[in-house]
Amino acid sequence: MDWMNNFKIKMKGIKTRLKKVNIPKSPPMLTIIEKTFFDLIKPIKFVVSLLIMLIQPLILIMSPLMIGFGSVSTINVDFGSISVEHAASIITIVLAYPLFSWTFGIVFTSILGIFGAPLVAEEVDSGTILILVSKPINRYKIFLAKYIALFLYGILLSFSIIFLVGWIALIRYSGNISHFIGILPFLFSLFLYAILLTLIFTSITLAFSSIFKKSRNAALAVILIVVLSFLGFPYIKALLQVNYERFQIYHFDIGYHLGNVFVLFIEIFDAIPPVAAWQIYFAQNFGVFKYVAYVDPDQNINLGGLEKTNYYLPVISLLIWIIIALLLLFYGFISIKKREIYR
């Protein structure tokens, strides 16, 4: 049994030496990012978010293919006998508008608002942030850590839903992997738009979370912006009709600017053919297109699709939203600095 006693003595010595070793800890900011991020991606919340985002695209994917301009008709397509480009065109035309208006319009932005609103407001109200500011990390870094965590959550959520929708559409229509490759430009352009949207609404959410004392009020403020953008202004546009342009409502129409940017990404990567089948929805609800076919002014030839309104150049709409996001981020920094957290 001597060998057993010797082994125990050696193990005790190793444990003693290990206790004396200073194992470096993660920097406080990284710790906050990690904790906040993993709180956001709890499995049940994440899966429920994906399912809600999937509702409208899934309904359209599982329904019979319908296409048309003015009158809608059901079509039968044999995906096994058409080219990859043709198949990709049909799939992207079906998915473009529901992904813009529902998945990334109403649901995704609302999720960022609901889950992001408590990140600052609730911790200030509960006094949890007192513990954080007592450590060697200032309020700016706390705010930035929360921002990065919510931004990463938005990127993960958007990537997951884009990948999921792409595969469901592939399985439903053809099962041919080459068709999935064919829609990659569309999925990539959608992901770039999602990154911009995440930047914008992360900034809006955390700015409101820094301003309002109650997280409920911050979440409601974000949801109000979402409803106004994707439901309110389309209703106003339908109500005013030609007066929408006459009174220049598009200056304040958040949905128009987002639609303008979305179409910009689609055009850059030539992700969807420029046809009226999908453009008509952006004309009706967001004013990105006119109800007029695009005609070459020199040869008087219909080039396909609808003519753009060009109230704003798409790049200008993009810059407007980037500037708004940066200003709100800066305002959030200032708000959390000035806000009294000692109760």
UniProtKB/TrEMBL annotation:
Keywords in UniProt for this one? Membrane, Transmembrane, Transmembrane helix
Please give the start and end residues of each transmembrane region: 46-67, 87-115, 147-171, 183-206, 218-236, 311-334
Query: One Pfam family, short name please?
Result: ABC2_membrane_2
Give the CC-aspect GO terms.
plasma membrane
Q: Which GO terms describe its molecular function?
A: ABC-type transporter activity
The cross-references to PANTHER family, in alphabetical order and at most eight, read: ABC TRANSPORTER PERMEASE (PTHR43471)
Q: What is this protein called?
A: ABC-2 type transporter domain-containing protein
User: What does the organism's lineage look like at the top?
Assistant: unclassified sequences, metagenomes, ecological metagenomes
